[in-house]
Amino acid sequence: MIASEPITVPGEAVLRSARTSAKVGLVCSGLAVLFLTFDTVLKVLRLGPAVEATISLGYPANSVQWIGLVELVCLALYVVPRTSVLGGLMLTGYLGGAVATHVRISSPLFTHILFPVYVALLLWGGLYLREKRLQDLVPLRS
């Protein structure tokens, strides 16, 4: 084989790889969606832990439900395939606000400040692996 020759991969291997990527993407997205759904339900229903956490972050108690509704809209956009990229963008902004809030009150770095970043990595990693249009837009090369 000459170094300048392109490497060819059989069509079946490419298809299998695409299916595996889509499955891994669904798992990553699913984990993030499960966590965000749990968080949204706590906030929208104004359950005790959500209200206490919001107050401890410096926000008024009456803002919990509104924050939860914003999160719910972002999450709904993310889980609908047609609007998933828009939902990912909106959730990135939402999670960026969570990072800023934790920085403002000097929370621990790896457990609190960066936790929304971990969630965003799951959201975008999952979306990238299962969304061909996103892969075409942002091609990662080895």
Topology:
Elements: H1 11-44, H2 48-56, H3 64-79, H4 84-104, H5 109-113, H6 115-130, H7 132-137
Q: Can you summarize this structure?
A:
This protein is mostly helical and 142 residues long. It has helices at residues 11-44, 48-56, 64-79, 84-104, 109-113, 115-130, 132-137.
Tell me about the biggest sheet? Answer: none
| Average residue pLDDT | 92
**Segments where pLDDT lies below 50 for 5+ residues?**
none
- Oligomeric state as shown: single chain
Counting H and I runs of at least 4 residues, what is the number of helices? Answer: 7
Strand content: under 5%
3D structure, described in words:
It is a single chain. With 142 residues, this protein is mainly α. It has one domain (15-134). It has helices at 11-44, 48-56, 64-79, 84-104, 109-113, 115-130, 132-137. Helix 1 packs antiparallel against helix 6 (115-130) and helix 3 runs antiparallel to helix 4. The radius of gyration is 19 Å and the shape is elongated. It starts with 10 loop residues before the first helix and ends in a 5-residue tail after the last helix.
Descriptors:
single chain; 142 residues; 75% helix
